[in-house]
Amino acid sequence: MTFLHRLPILLTLVSTLGSALADPSDPDDVDDTPLPVVIWHGLGDTFSADGLQSVGALVEKVNPGTLVYYVRLDESPSNDRTATFYGNVTEQIAKVCDDLAAHPILSTAPAIDAIGFSQGGQFLRGYIERCNFPPVRSLVTFGSQHNGIVDYKACSAADWLCKGAMALLHGNTWSSWVQSRLVPAQYFRDPNDLESYLEYSNFLADINNEREIKNETYAKNIAKLENFVMYIFENDTTVIPKETGWFEEVNGTEITPLRARKLYSEDWIGLRALDRKGRLHFKTTPGEHMRISDETLEDTISAFFGPFEKAAPKDDQRSEEL
C-alpha cells in the first residue's frame, strides 16, 4: 500500500526528468517562430510609406509569421515625417523605448531584430545603448551616419521642410536651440571642430561615448548583439561622408578605418568586443543612397533574422585576427 501510495509521485518525477533530458536537437522541441522585426525609417520618410511597407512584406515573405513593427513618432504620417527633421532625438528615442516596452507582443518576445534606414540606424543603436528592452538580437543598418555628417545633399526644389532644416544646420549648428530641435544637427560632426562637437552635441557625441566620462552600459549593450551589420552605398552622394556608415573618420581626403580609431581600440561602445566574436559585419551595396535591391534585402533577412535559436553567420576570418 505504501508503494502504491507513492507511485504517482514517482511517475511525476520520472516524467519531469524525462523532459529535462529531452534531446534539444529534436525539431519538435524547437520554437520556429521568427523574432519580431522593428524598422526605423530615415530622414524625410514616414512609417506608412509604400517603400517601407514593401520592406516589411519582404521580411514576412522570407520568414512567414514575422511581426513587423514600424517605428513612428506620431500616428499621423505627416507629423511623423516632420519629426524626422524637427525634434529632440534624445526625447524621440525615449519615446520609442517606452512604446516598445509597452507593446503587448514585442515586450514579451525573447528578443527582437531591427533594421535602421539612414538616420534610423543610429537611432536604433541609441535605443540599444540607452534602454534595449525588448533586447535587440541583430541590428542591420543601411547608409546610416554612425560617425556623423559634415554636410547633407541639397534638398529638392519643392521640399521646403527640408530646405528650412538644412538652412538651420548650416547656419547655427551648435546653438542650444538648434541642438535640441533640428534632428540632423544632432548627428553633425566636423573633424576640424571636435571641440564644439564634444561640448554641444545633443546626441551623437553621447552615444559614441566620445566624451571624457564614458557610459559603460553603452558598450555592454552593443557587445551583447548577436550581429551588427553595417551597409554603405557605393555611390552614396546624399550622406557626406558615406564612410560614416562604417564608423570611419573622414577628414578631407584622409580616411581612418574604424579599427585604427580609439573608438575601437579602447572599445568605447563595444564594437571591438563584437568584432572579436566575428559579429561585426562591414558590407557594401551598389547604387545611390537608399537604393536597395530586393535581393540584398532578402539575403540579409534570411541570413540574420528568423527564429530565436537560429545560428547567424560569423566573420570567422576577422575574429581570428583580433
Oligomeric grouping of the chains:
single chain
Whole-number mean pLDDT: 89
Q: What class, by secondary structure content?
A: alpha/beta
Please give the largest β-sheet. Answer: 6 strands, parallel
Order of helices and strands: HEHEHHEHEEHHHHHEEEEHHEHH
Rg of Cα set? 22 Å
Q: What is the strand arrangement across the widest sheet?
A: 2-1-3-4-6-10
Shape: globular
- Number of helical elements: 14
Termini Cα gap: 67 Å
Strand content: 5-15%
What is the strand and helix layout of this fold?
Blueprint: H1 2-20, E1 37-40, H2 50-62, E2 68-70, H3 77-82, H4 89-102, E3 112-117, H5 119-130, E4 136-142, E5 151-152, H6 160-171, H7 176-179, H8 194-200, H9 204-207, H10 216-223, E6 227-233, E7 239-240, E8 249-251, E9 254-256, H11 262-265, H12 271-276, E10 280-285, H13 294-304, H14 316-321
Parallel strand pairs: 1-2, 1-3, 3-4, 4-6, 6-10
Antiparallel strand pairs: 5-7, 8-9
Model description:
By secondary structure, this protein is α/β, with parallel strands linked by helices. The protein is 39% helix and 13% strand. It is built from 14 helices and 10 strands. The chain has helices at residues 2-20, 50-62, 77-82, 89-102, 119-130, 160-171, 176-179, 194-200, 204-207, 216-223, 262-265, 271-276, 294-304, 316-321, and strands at residues 37-40, 68-70, 112-117, 136-142, 151-152, 227-233, 239-240, 249-251, 254-256, 280-285. The strands form 3 sheets. It has a 6-stranded parallel beta sheet with strand order 2-1-3-4-6-10, sandwiched between helices. A two-stranded antiparallel ribbon has the order 5-7. The model is unreliable at 1-5 and 7-22 (pLDDT under 50).
